[in-house]
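quick one before i forget lol
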Amino acid sequence: MKLAIVRQKYTPFGGAERFVERALSALADKGLDVTIVTRQWKGDRQDRRKLRLCNPFYLGRLWRDAGFSREVQKIVAEGEFDLVQSHERIPGCHIYRAGDGVHATWLELRAKTQSALAAFFTRWHPWHRYVLRAEERMFRDPALKAVICNSRMVKDDIVRRFGVAEDKLHVIHNGVDLEYFHPGLRDQHRQVVREQLGIPQEAPMVLFVGSGFERKGVFPLLKAVAGLPGVHLVVVGKDRKLPAAQELSRQLGIAERTHFLGAQQDVRPYYGAADVFALPTLYDPFPNAVLEALACGLPVLTSPTSGAAELINAECGLVVNALSVTEQCSGLAFLLTGVERGYAMRAARDVAKTCASLDMTVCLIKLYQDLRGEA
């Protein structure tokens, strides 16, 4: 079977790209001929990996995205591939992986944090209008055979908004490498990382991992930590609003116990050093970072507009309002002091085991085989 996977731009820190990376080797081992269709790929080149570069010249984000979409649609029309799976909103592809969720829903949730005027201009921005139209056309295109939803939250949203038949919607959670992310990282890294960051060994440490500080809740999280004396917050992720986050930490008087580390190629040492993982995201279809934290045995605080919330139970974490500083503060306090560590670690690890990389790959292979049989 010849399979094309479409992703505009690869970065080693992106959740969608990590999904592709985890799946590619296993898919190739099963005899699939996989080609990556992309504008720019920064990952490690493996001998058996095939790349197809489609990089239209740049005249702004809208022009770039529309040009890439046209090039991919030409590839689909040529019929070289048995299946084309897109991680972008491109009409005409056979499979769409809804890793970015539903753009219309994101705009609605984002508007809750904006002024009426800012929300109006966001909604009517040409690029957002393009994405909304592309999303609508893609979900209604007769060529679409299947949608991979990385959470039930996303599946239900697609049914509600676009009326896609449920037999086309397949919930396949992201997979996590349970050997790469594990509770033993605590013994390996806790002391060293804390010494490097100047965090006392006995001090409670909350970890945030993610890029997109506004969407993923860094600013309310900073305010919540400000209400927890002695608690340190470590923020791993790259974002253009980093200066604003740093300034807020100074205004809140927590600059000395807030550590902004930027993007990190290997986040495992920080999972090992932390006591709690927090991602109070305004909207996230299914954050890999939550799954990685659970695999490392960390209790998790997240929000109901995170697809990973469907994994969280009272034994391994809490689900709180993404915009409520009070709920986040009390939730973190409980997870840091009111939970027996060994019990929470086992419970978190057990949840992560339900999303092993092998399970994800098996589900993908079955989906591809079923679709090829239909063709």
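fyi DSSP finds 15 helices and 13 strands in the chain.
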